[in-house]
Amino acid sequence: MSAATKLHWFFPVVAVVLLALAPCARGDERIVVKLPRADREQMQNDMVRFMEQQHALIDALAVRDMTRAENVARQARPPLARIRALASGKPLPPEGRLPQIKGDEALFLRMRKNLPPPYLNMLLGMRETWAKIESDAARGGSPEQALKHMSALQGFCVTCHKLYRIEPVADR
Predict the structure, then answer these.
(1) DSSP, res 96
(2) What is the Cα–Cα distance from 50 to 153, expressed in whole angstroms?
(3) Where are the alpha helices (DSSP H) in the chain?
(4) pTM of the predicted structure, to 2 decimals
């Protein structure tokens, strides 16, 4: 393994360890959001996939491959109509449906009920920023601009994880 590859993994691993230990030092003071166990698992799986997609995007940007960056961003883009409806309290529009998820409309309604509005607004900001990365790449934007968007996007992630702790409740 090259020194660059080792360094590539060093900082994310250190960050995860530090974030994991931080609550132990003072007690976990984050806002508790309770979700049915299956919804929590769905959300955690979505977060892992999104982190993988961010990693793939950063890899493309590191070699200045904007075509690959655009493809990664497009493949990862969730329907903005879905999160806009969630954040605004509007009904789930047809273009916001996720047919690959069984019980999608019920999941949508539970998320609206259980996630606090500031959380939904951060989620909306994050998803809209991801869409900017895709549109900028499609228009021939620079890797530097995409990285600025990535920084803003990860700012949403960091803020949300610092503010909220999602705990499971028994499915009903």
Answers:
(1) G
(2) 11
(3) 3-26, 37-62, 66-76, 80-88, 104-114, 117-138, 143-163
(4) 0.76
Q: Classify residue 89 by its DSSP letter.
A: T
The structural domain count of the chain equals 1
Place of tokens 């007690």: 27
Residues 4-31 have pLDDT tens digits of 555 555 555 555 555 555 555 568 899 9
Does the residue 16 lie in any domain? no
pLDDT tens column, 134-163: 999 999 999 999 999 999 999 999 999 999
For the chain, the residue count is: 172
Instruction: Give CA–CA dist 170/98, Å, rounded.
Output: 24
Range of the domain at 152: 23-169
Q: How many CB atoms lie within 10 A of CB 15?
A: 11
